Amino acid sequence: MFLLLKHETICTIFPCLETTIPLCFAELASTGQVTEKLDVYSFGVVALEVLMGKHPGEMLLHLQSGGHDIPFSNLLDERLTPPVGPIVQELVLATALALLCVQENPISRPTMHQVCSELSARRSLHVPAPIRLLTLRNLMNMLKDQASSSVTSYV
Q1: Helices 36-52 and 57-64, interaxial angle, to 10°?
Q2: Which of 10, 16, 29, 149 is the most buried (most CB within 10 A)?
Q3: What pLDDT score was predicted for residue 17?
């Protein structure tokens, strides 16, 4: 029902969705149906919003134009202390999975089952550098390099 409302109505009620809705509507317009991959995209947006502490609208547009050189530290909510220790690896995995979910091409996105499996397995990605040196491209490459991952075929 939400997707049946007019874009102007949704953005009036939820101004934070102004940059996300056109991306979803473009996909909806091309397929003509709400799909699991559209839900996966929405999950990725919500996950990124939790990590960032704000709506990721501008960052999503930047990613879709090929801008994966954003520092990972810029993605994290700046109101919180920077993560240290083992939590960094889990945070890197969660962020990499969220980035997979918001890929522009729906075919490239994992299924929710795959995302849940990765998160449930409590895997973590080895972080080879201090997080201040990581970029979003590095996160995607780390996930791709993790050969046992069930979502690597979608990277």
Answers
A1: 120
A2: 149
A3: 47
Bridge partner list, 71: 135
Task: State how far the Cα of 86 lies from the Cα of 90, in Å rounded to an integer.
Answer: 7
Give CA–CA dist 56/109, Å, rounded. 18
106: tokens are 């729906």
The dihedrals phi and psi of 71, each to the nearest 5 degrees, come to -65, 135
Q: Read off φ and ψ for residue 146, nearest 5 degrees.
A: -80, 90
**Torsion 117-140-144-66 (CA) sign:** positive
Q: What is the pLDDT of residue 153?
A: 54
List the one residue out of 51, 57, 43 whose CA is nearest residue 14: 57
pTM: 0.73
3-state helix, strand, coil in the chain (%, to 5): 65, 0, 35
Hunting for tokens 């889990």 — which residue is that? 90
